[in-house]
Amino acid sequence: MTESAYNIAVVGAGAVGLSAAMAFARDGFKTILVGGLDVRRDGRTVALLNGSVRFLEALGVWPALSREAAPLETMRIIDDTGSLFRPPPASFRAGEIGLDAFGWNIENITLVEKLAEAARTCDNLSLVPEFATGFEADETGALLTLADGRTIRAGLVVAADGRNSRLRQIAGIGTQTWSYPQSAVTVILAHERDHRETSTEFHTRHGPFTLVPLPGRRSSLVWVTSKDEAERLSRLDDAALALAIERQAQSHLGAMRIDGPRGLVPMTGLSVSRYWAPRLALVGEAAHVFPPIGAQGLNLGFRDVASLRDAVVDGQDAGHDPGSDEALLRYQRSRDLDVRLRTAAVDGLNRTLLTGMIPTDFLRGAGLLALSNIGPLRRIVMREGVLPRVGVPRLMQGASPA
User: Which residues form the FAD-binding domain (predicted)?
Assistant: First the structure.
């Protein structure tokens, strides 16, 4: 059995794990990425918000990604709940807060493949397509055991191994999970009319139905509905599903055609009791799971990575090693409130659509009407959604790695 030594070991080779490994390697840390690529094709995309774009620019990968992504210049919300207090459609434009776009939409698989291409040529970074089966920590470092019997010693292990994180379980970090009486149908579509770089979200009584632009006359769909209806839709052939989507979208993009893979995603959530254990930091879905609403999941995962990088670099400047308790406590403080607030916002929006109670409908309708008609309030909410001013990690402020 052989043992190798690194400053940082990242476990999990999805988008969050790849970005974490590159961020640390580009800072000069001897880094290893453990795990096989996540190459599932399920019709899912991610709307990369402004901070995530700046983060990817700092890693040097945004030029390759931007060619495959579509800008989100306008966000349109339509109340399709049948409520007595239904407000008129509301549109929010990125130009109002000085941005060209709120974010950029890209297929998940494309994002992972482009990050992997960059990781293969990144200095200070080794890639090992193996599973991690064991984890131990002591005062001097952590020891990872791989499925092939090799061991890796590192000052810090970053768990980016997903919602069922084995490392989180071994470390004994507690979780809280919940589910909703819904599932999401995801699919890539081609359509007759231009989307005009507008993301359109219909709020229905069963959940959001959201069409997000892709390059050309293509869009991605996340259709949140009841579990039974989602399963029925997922069994339809392409022509029948495209017609059902066109009708639900009120034909605002014209005739539709299925133009890529599709998926069926359960609506679940997960939170953790803490974001670290000795020599271990949780990032991405190892730390929090969101239903596919509001473009929060992966964007928060990138924010985890950028925050952890800041905590480790600052700790090093203060004379601490990468996996010190001081650095990990700093990371905990940077993530706790941010994730809790965004978890509450996504959960609250989804539950208000499901309730059907008149007071809740009134408050939701009044809130959307206020955002439509009160310019300063609308701009404050938009900025907080894509350009929060408090606690923004340095790599999301446009800075380059040290």
Answer: 7-309
∠ CA 324-330-334, rounded to 5°: 145
The CATH number given to 3-73+95-177+270-355+386-396 is: 3.50.50.60
Q: Where are the domains of the chain?
A: 3-73+95-177+270-355+386-396
Q: Which residues contact 24 (CB under 8 A, 6 or more apart)?
A: 7, 8, 10, 31, 158, 309, 312
pLDDT 10s per residue in the chain (402 long)? 456 899 999 999 999 999 999 999 999 999 999 998 877 778 889 999 888 999 999 999 999 999 999 999 998 988 887 665 566 788 888 888 888 898 899 999 999 999 999 999 999 999 999 999 999 998 889 999 999 999 999 999 999 999 999 999 999 999 999 898 899 999 999 999 999 999 998 988 888 899 999 999 999 999 999 999 999 999 999 999 999 999 999 999 999 999 988 999 988 999 999 999 999 999 999 999 987 776 678 999 999 999 999 999 998 888 889 999 999 999 999 998 888 887 777 776 666 665 544 445 444 445 555 445 555 544 555 556 665 666 789 999 864 444
Q: Report the distance separating Cα 2 and Cα 161, nearest Å.
A: 23
CA separation, residue 205 to residues 227, 236, 355, 364 (Å):
13, 22, 8, 13
Residue 365 token pair: 């309708």
Whole-model pTM?
0.89
Q: Identify the DSSP state of 279.
A: T
CB contact set of 337 (below 8 Å; sequence gap of 6+): none
Distance of CA 74 to the CA centre of its chain: 20
